[in-house]
Amino acid sequence: MRGLVLSAVVAASFTACLTAPAPIISSGHGGSGQSPGSAGDIGTGGDTSGGAGVTGSAGTMEGTGGMPTGTAGDTGAAGTGGTSTGRGGTTGAGGTVGSGGAAAGTGGTESGGTAGAAGRGGTTGAAGTTGGAGRGGTTGTAGTTGAAGRGGTTGSAGTTGGAGTGGTTSPAAAVDGLRVDDVCGNLLAGNVCLHKGKATDDGTPFSAMKAVTMGGTTGTTYQVKLHFRGVVEPTHIMSGTTGTPTTFITGGARYGDGTQEATYQQWRLTTTNPNQHYYLNAYNAVGLSHVVNLIDYTETIPIAAGATVTLDVFDGNAHAISNTVNSPPLAPSGVPGSMNAGQFIQINVDGVM
User: Fold this and answer.
1) What's the rounded Cα separation, in Å, for the pair 85 and 319?
2) Of 152, 214, 240, 260, whose CB has the highest number of CB atoms within 10 Å?
3) What is the pLDDT along the chain (353 residues), one digit of tens a residue?
4) CA neighbor of 42 nearest in space, from 50, 34, 33
5) Which contacts qualify for 195-201: CB closer than 8 Å, 24 or more apart?
């Protein structure tokens, strides 16, 4: 056994000679080597490699001439740098250096202690797994093209609204525009014409009329302002009440057939409630002649709701004075003129109270 021990010692010493200076014989014993420092952690994000472990200090010497037989701790391997994405693994701590063998007794030759087994180097930390590249956001699906707006359906026509309060139809609406035309047929000499429908100037009477019904509330009598416009020949009327102008006469009577006055036609307005008639072309102040006159005036008369309102013309013979006697022919403002050079009167309503 001694021989084996010595052989081992010799082998160890031979190995030591290859890596260390010749030992100095000392009565002291070698200090233990300090453990190598741990490798520094990789910084967050793996951008910087871990720092190398601090090299262990050599064992301190004890006694004069003593030498540290413990070998210095291995330098910890630097941690491998983490990739830019993964975090680097930490470097394994270096193995602890074995303490040196005890010194030989006094006076004896000190056998070197069995060399401590070399510290096992820390295992190299596995490199952090490289982080997968960030996945690009998926391309958004293009929005579908909006359907064209549907045209609104054509609204049905609204029903006609009833008359608003205060805007009811005038009671005299039917009277407004009442008109009679004595149209010329054949023109004769001396600015006269046959009444339309007459074949010859046979001396027989002629008449024309138009009637309408007054509106309004039953039992109510309205004051209606009437506007008279037209072209007429003059006549004379017996009695009655002269108005303004004097050619407007309330009541009265026409001259009988066979008289000169009866051969000049009379224009008249009649109401059934109140029962009254009005002569519209009574030129009593002038003599009768072959002329036509322009009338354009207003009069206010009472007319009850439901009354019949009649405009008529009567001539005791078959011919009339035409509107060609004047040059140019007469024409009142605001209404259509004569039909075929004939005579006419049109009535419009200017107000109802």
Assistant:
1) 123
2) 214
3) 434 333 333 334 333 333 444 433 333 333 433 444 443 443 333 333 334 334 344 334 333 333 333 343 343 343 343 333 334 344 334 344 334 333 333 333 334 334 334 434 434 434 334 334 334 333 334 334 434 444 444 445 445 545 444 456 999 999 999 999 999 999 998 899 999 999 999 999 999 999 999 999 999 999 999 999 999 999 999 999 999 999 999 999 999 988 999 999 999 999 999 999 999 999 999 999 999 999 999 999 999 999 999 999 999 999 999 999 988 999 999 999 999 999 999 999 999 99
4) 50
5) 195/315, 195/318, 195/319, 195/320, 196/340, 196/342, 198/318, 198/319, 200/318, 201/317, 201/318, 201/319
Residue with tokens 């910084």: 43
Give me the residue label for tokens 């997968």: 132
Cβ-Cβ contacts under 8 Å for 96 (sequence gap 6 or more): 33, 35, 73, 119
3-state secondary structure string across the chain: CHHHHHHHHHHHHHHHHHHCCCCCCCCCCCCCCCCCCCCCCCCHHHCCCCCCCCCCCCCCCCCCCCCCCCCCCCCCCCCCCCCCCCCCCCCCCCCCCCCCCCCCCCCCCCCCCCCCCCCCCCCCCCCCCCCCCCCCCCCCCCCCCCCCCCCCCCCCCCCCCCCCCCCCCCCCCCCCCEEEEECEEEEECCCEEEECCCCCCCCCCEEEEEEEECCCCCCCEEEEEEEEEEEECCECCECCEECCCCCCEECCECCCCCCCHHHCCEEEEEEECCEEEEECCECCCCCCCCCCEEEEEEEEEEEECCCEEEEEEEECCCEEECCCCCCCCCCCCCCCCCCCCCEEEEEEEEEEC
